[in-house]
Amino acid sequence: MERAATTASSLDVEQDNDAQTRFETASKQSNDPPQSRGYTLRSGEDSMKLLELMELCTKLSDLVRKRRERCCELKSRKRDV
After folding, report:
1. According to the UniProt entry, which residue ranges have a biased composition of type Polar residues (predicted)?
2. What are the C-alpha distances in Å from 77 to residues 19, 64, 70, 71, 81?
3. Domains: count for the chain
4. Residue 41 in contact with residue 50, Cβ under 8 Å?
5. Is residue 57 located within the same domain as residue 27?
6. Which domain holds residue 67?
7. 0.70 cut: is pTM over it?
8. Residue 37 belongs to what H/E stretch?
9. Is 58 in the same domain as 78?
10. Contact, 47 vs 41, CB < 8 A?
11. Could you report how far apart the first and last alpha carbons of the chain are, in Å?
């Protein structure tokens, strides 16, 4: 009976270790850059699409920043009145 309990306990520990290893592997992969996981751009077209998306994101970010600045400016004026 004691041997069965020890074996069952060993199995639980082993399963916990396996689950932890899988979790650590998945976590590391999700934080690694795509290139380290084997994903690469396949053509010049993909590269252009990436550049266009980056440019669009930059423009949108600039617009958001300008809107926030304008909003703060308007709020400041409103307080002064």
Report:
1. 1-38
2. 58, 20, 11, 10, 6
3. 2
4. yes
5. no
6. 45-81
7. no
8. none
9. yes
10. yes
11. 84
